[in-house]
Specification:
By secondary structure, this protein is an alpha/beta fold. It has 4 domains: 13-74, CAP Gly-rich-like domain (SH3 type barrels, Roll); 79-179, no CATH class; 318-465, Leucine-rich repeat, LRR (right-handed beta-alpha superhelix); 473-558, Phosphatidylinositol 3-kinase Catalytic Subunit, Chain A, domain 1 (Ubiquitin-like (UB roll), Roll), CATH 3.10.20. The strands form 6 sheets. An 11-stranded mixed beta sheet has the order 10-12-13-14-15-16-17-18-19-20-21, with no helix packed on it. Strands 23-22-26-24-25 form a 5-stranded mixed beta sheet, covered by helices on one side. Strands 1-2-3-6 form a 4-stranded antiparallel beta sheet, with no helix packed on it. β12, α4 (168-175) and β13 form a beta-alpha-beta unit. The two termini are 52 Å apart.
Length: 559
């Protein structure tokens, strides 16, 4: 640990027994004699107070238990970049008995050296480094000026995650000495960023990938610093509580990938502020809590499609698909937003409505989508049917949840979708006769691609629609009464649950509804077909269907 305090101790990042903190105070804390450091822990459970002691406020914390007072000799202030590099990558010196004497000329004088060949070997080793990982190595800054550039000038990729860097200026000091730097990971460094655009230095003139996950950066700070990233292509901003507050007008114009995962305050209106980044091809929005989106500049597909249906194409025609999408675009159903977006990740969100997928069809360039662990994709009996419906609703998808959409799969999905909603189409005013084909706006809003599929494959015939399709989502829902035998004050309710829903997921739903821990819930059910008999749902991993739960049965919930 450090025996002397740095002169600029306030704001410094420190490590104590594996835990990281920021120094907020240095001085005396009566009545105990001697110097103390007041620190704010990254983990608020590690501390004891909010920076106050016996009624005196010495510093402030964002969390009431994030503060502690620690003796300076217990604190590790870290090491400079070059020291960390040598600790990690330099070979040990040769043993003394094997070291050799050499005579070198310095100026005009011969000088005896011992172990000179070992020094040359170390220097050669460092100069060859291109990819460097210094994760959790307590790096606190650049160190001596010019030292990095002299020792390891060829570094192209650095992982500096979870270190003791305190400010963006310290990062600039390191990057300024690495003229070939392309990849930089600064995750889990609690950095302070400039509030106004820093002076241009050329420090990041070659930087293409920047990872700032869990650094505490704000959107305004991103835009301030971004002027120094002229060729940046990939930017990762996960878990920063970011709120997108303004459009990036003259910055981030080269970014192809943007990761905003786990920033729970981002909504669709904020996303529209980044909708015109010209080169944005990949957008990662996992776990941001989004449930809806609507592109206001695109129509809903209510145009007049009353033309002679086209004959069914061969097994798959990329030309016919292109023509259908071109027709929709020319008719105003595509958005001008996110013009280059090809890959969208929406895992772990709150998407529960098919209208969300309808909106994604309006993106001009979207070819790949990942949307796992959403209510829409998790709540149905047949995952394959859900996949088919997504494919049918988003006409240009080539990959769904990292699985390729083959031509035959698309054809089958679109034909099944066309049949599945054929009766609704007819009730809404759809007709095989082009002159009478006038589905109402409500149907077209719910199924924007339906008319295009009729153009592509022909309108569904009556014979196709006689039998109710077994895979319709509404046919998989069970209407169940839910009673609480031990809680007479609880009102009996009715719920519609998929028969494929596991007992574990039913318990999770009831836990949120009743505010009771899942571990305390016991489930059974009664059926009118077997009066007086109660069947226990004892295996959490089995489905309601496994236990033969049927429409009209009664779930019994105890805790």
């Amino acid at each position: 640990m450090n025996s002397t305090l740095p002169s600029d101790v306030i704001g410094r990042r420190v490590e104590v027994n594996g835990e990281h903190a920021t120094v907020r105070f240095s001085g005396i804390v009566p009545p105990v004699a001697g110097p103390w450091l007041g620190v704010e822990w990254d983990n608020p459970e590690r501390g004891k107070h909010d920076g106050s002691h016996e009624g005196t406020v010495y510093f402030k914390c964002r969390h009431p238990t994030a503060g502690s007072f620690i003796r300076p000799n217990k604190v590790n202030f870290g090491v400079d970049f070059l020291t960390a590099i040598k600790n990690r990558y330099v070979l040990e010196d040769e043993p003394k008995e094997e070291q050799t004497e050499q005579i070198v000329i310095i100026g005009n004088k011969p000088v005896e050296t011992i172990g000179f060949d070992s020094v040359i070997k170390q220097q050669s080793q460092l100069s060859k480094l291109q990819d460097v990982s210094l994760r959790n190595c307590a790096v606190n800054g650049a160190g001596d000026q010019g030292g990095i550039a002299k020792a390891c000038p060829n570094i192209r990729s650095i992982d500096l995650s979870k270190n003791l860097l305190s400010s963006w200026e310290e990062v600039i000091d390191i990057a300024n000495q690495l003229k070939h730097l392309e990849v930089l990971n600064l995750s889990e460094n609690r950095l302070t960023f400039p509030s106004s655009s820093p002076s241009p230095t050329g420090a990041f003139s070659t930087l293409k990938v920047l990872v700032l996950n869990r650094t505490g950066i704000t959107w305004a700070e991103v835009l301030c610093c971004a002027s120094g990233w002229p060729v940046l292509e990939k930017l990762y901003l996960e878990s920063n509580n970011i709120v997108i507050s303004e459009r990036p007008t003259d910055v981030l114009q080269t970014v192809k990938l943007l990761d905003l995962s786990s920033n729970q305050s981002i909504d669709e209106n904020q996303l529209f502020l980044i909708a015109y980044l010209p080169r944005l091809e990949q957008l990662i929005l996992s776990d941001i809590g989004i449930s809806s989106i609507h592109f206001p500049d695109a129509g809903i597909g209510t145009q007049d499609y009353s033309v002679t249906p086209l004959p069914a194409p061969p097994p798959f025609s990329s030309l016919s698909l292109l023509l259908c999408n071109l027709i929709l675009f020319l008719l105003g159903c595509k958005t001008s937003m996110f013009p280059s977006l090809q890959y969208l990740v929406l895992n772990d969100n709150r998407i529960a409505q098919w209208s969300f997928m309808n909106e994604l069809d309006k993106l001009q360039s979207l070819h790949a989508l990942s949307c796992t662990r959403n209510p829409l994709t998790e709540g149905s009996k047949d995952a394959q049917t859900t996949r088919q419906f997504i494919i049918a609703r988003i006409g240009q998808l080539r990959t769904l949840n990292k699985c390729a959409v083959e031509p035959e799969e698309r054809r089958g999905a679109e034909l099944d979708y066309r049949k599945a909603f054929g009766n609704e189409w007819k009730k809404a005013g759809g007709h095989q006769d082009p002159e009478k084909n006038r589905p109402n706006e409500e149907f077209l809003a719910a199924h924007p691609r339906y008319q295009a599929l009729c153009l592509k494959y022909g309108a569904p015939e009556d014979g196709e629609l006689k039998t109710q399709q077994p895979f319709l989502l509404k046919n998989q829902l069970l209407t169940l009464k839910i009673k609480y035998p031990n809680q007479l004050d609880q009102k009996v309710i009715e719920k519609q649950l998929p028969e494929s829903m596991t007992v574990q997921k039913v318990k999770g739903l009831l836990s949120r509804l009743l505010k009771v821990p899942v571990s305390e819930l016991l489930l059974s059910y009664e059926s009118p077909k077997m009066p007086g008999k109660e069947i226990e749902l004892e295996n959490d991993l089995q489905s309601l269907q496994f236990y033969s739960v049927e429409n009209g049965d009664c779930l019994l919930v105890r805790w």
